[in-house]
Amino acid sequence: MTSSPGKTASGSPRILVVLSERERDLFFPGELGKRLSSHVPERAWIFPERLARPFGDLLRAENPNVLVGCWSLPPIDRDALDGCPALAYFCYLTGAPRTKMPRAFWERGGVASNWGNAISNTIAECALTLVLSCLRQVPRFHEEMHIDRSWRAPSSDLPRSLFNRRVGIHGFGNVARELVKLLAPFDVEIEAWSAPVPPAVFEQAGVKQAAGLRELFANNEILIDAEALTPASEGSVNESVIEALQPGAVFVNVGRGKIVDEAALARRAARGDISIGLDVYETEPLPADSPLRGLPNAVLLPHTAGPTVDRYPYCAIAALDNLEAFLAGKPLPQAFPLDMFDRST
User: What is the CA radius of gyration of the chain?
Assistant: First the structure.
């Protein structure tokens, strides 16, 4: 008995799971691994680090209906996609399916999902951590206590609080909306701006829409960048926008490094009149000779905002919910449609 293209001999969808061993252990421990194996046995999983031939060749040979993948999944080009006509659903465990699958997949009717808002709260939590670290001058006091083994001088600047501040948010996706929730106890005034977001979205969230990006930076004491990287947003936080930050401002970026003119930000921070907290950079890993390194008013993290190690299984739960919905012919809970392809990072 022969099977249909992309399907098993029994007629059920053929599912190809492409995960590194580390990703498998992080995302699918214990019962979650068993839940995935109930749909596809582990012997059908592909570990990219063990591949002995180009992934595109393997994909064409397998011609699955469903592809489950993560960061280690090799990017699929148009030729490989054309050689896999049965592929109808791409279940991506993490952020942006567009980094692995070409636009043509959506254009031919394919559907995709990602982790949705499964880790938006942890990224928002990291943004809040960076804001508080800047206001409380954690880098300077850390160095003085550990390196200099000194104590705060009576004449030194005192820490500041987040309560009753004016906060601006660049971007208004899942992370920004989670951030609004976390900021609520601090009684802050929140203003936000994102070019693709309709005014009604800000209104529904009870957040003031800024007149523009430069106005957002000029009118608020704390700026948090959570914008998606698109051709339109790349480099949008330019030198003019950065110079609009008022003295004493805090700038935090948990979006994407390429949204910001990093050289201009480093120059402004080196003047010492603003504080910055960064989790993302124009080049990652951050070069050892970056002018951002060593600044006493900069909190630098190595792109660790999310997911935290304890939240990986929640991403797997979201993926399994999507996979099971697809297999049951139901709408995907965290669908990633074509319009999101065009405006996501």
Answer: 23
